[in-house]
Amino acid sequence: MEVPRLSQHISTPNSPCEDMIKNLSLENIQLCERDGNKSQDSGIAEMEELPVPHNIKISNITCDSFKISWDMDPKSKDRITHYFIDLNKKENKNSNKFKHKDVPTKLVAKAVPLPMTVRGHWFLSPRTEYTVAVQTASKQVDGDYVVSEWSEIIEFCTADYSKVHLTQLMEKAEAIAGRMLKFSVFYRNQHKEYFDYIREHHESVMQPSPKDNSGSHGSPISAKLEGILFSCNTEFNTGKPPQDSPYGRYRVEIPAEKLFNPNTNLYFGDFYCMYTAYHYVILVLAPMGSPGDEFCKQRLPQLSLSDNKFLTCTQEHDGLVFHQAQDVILEVIYTDPVDLSWGNVAEIIGHQLMSLSTADAKKDPSCKTCNISVGR
Fold it and tell me: I need a surface site. Which of 166, 173, 290, 333 has the fewest CB within 10 A?
């Protein structure tokens, strides 16, 4: 990997890295504006003899890396010393919207055997569409480059967090979960019109729907997993659900054993905050063998029902006993339909606190408590 200085010219590096497939760093990147099909960099000359990359292929895509390869005409191939890779978020190819504003999109790499790995969480985000184009270049004795024309522009999308990434996120959540408190019901807050609609159009059965885009951008459940959102946190002094709600003044309370029992699998889904001191943990409850269970098995870390830091179900002499973590706000997604007749619907006496709503909430990418060192 070439390590150019950040100046108007791409200069000879002080300490080149010998292996392109190692992680990129801030010093590995030099900004080069691209207008049309040819480079306009000061100090970079155009040379038609260098082969133009074509038939670009993107493979092995993760949330913060990908492999790239291409074909080239053999003409002057032995003169190529470097590749220029122009990487841009698809929504605006001419702007630089990365987390660090001083990080440009042009990657300058030594000409190594293809495919070549591009990796770096400061300029690659999960589940994000990008465009990429490539030039070949030949470094001259004076430090300047001659370059080919730009290749065609290719589009691709990065992946979600893997189970490995989610396990790292889960471990950070475990560190702040706090002691466990008893609870007895799962509850869902909505407006009266919601429950009237369920009774009239769905025979009083709440149906799963796709999860919104709140939380970590890389969470594989966002906009993909279908379920019904419940809460289970209780007030410390009463042991009962809070009387305030961000989602509406009506609440259905379902006995915990109806949704959480030995026939249910439990998964960790996400950990995030919204620029506040509150941290949220998303868990998934999926009846064994259900479509939601199959979805989660492939993508999410599974938790022991009786031994985890967030939500437990244990068998005691008088039946099932349930506990939830005190110091995080739990959002529990149940992946099957739920009949209102399993519980009770009633109006709460507290306030509707809209400021606490997590609907499509964006995660704070700078929080050290709930972020991991991969694409945000």
Answer: 290
**Cβ burial, residue 368 (10 Å; 0-12/13-18/19+):** exposed
| 232 found inside a domain | yes
Beta bridge partners of 321: 314
Per-residue pLDDT at 317 exceeds 90: no
Whole-angstrom distance, CA of residue 18 vs CA of residue 3: 10
Do 294 and 346 fall within a single domain? yes
- The tokens describing 236, both together, are 């410390």
Give the CB-side neighbour count of residue 170, counting CA atoms within 13 A.
Answer: 21
d(CA 273, CA 367): 8
Residue 293 contacts residue 335 (beta carbons within 8 Å): yes
Asked if residue 171 and residue 124 are part of one domain, the reply reads no
Pairwise CA distance, residues 169 & 300, whole Å:
11
What does pTM read for this prediction? 0.79
**Higher model confidence: residue 235 or residue 156?**
156
Task: Give the C-alpha separation, 156 to 209, whole Å.
Answer: 27
At residue 43, the 3 state secondary structure works out as coil
Over residues 90-109, the pLDDT tens digits come to 865 444 444 444 344 678 88
Answer yes or no: are the C-beta atoms of 120 and 42 closer than 8 Å.
no
**137: nearest Cα among 7, 297, 259, 10:** 10
338 CB-side CA count, 13 A: 31
Residue 153, classified by CB atoms within 10 Å of its CB into exposed (0-12), middle (13-18) or buried (19+), is middle
247, 192 Cβ separation under 8 angstroms: no
What's the one-letter identity of residue 358?
T
Is residue 69 in some structural domain? yes
Residue 51 belongs to what domain range? 26-157
Domain count across the chain = 2
pLDDT of residue 122: 67
- Clarify whether residues 62 and 179 are in a common domain: no
**Residue 100's CATH number:** 2.60.40.10
- Report if residue 4 sits inside a domain: no
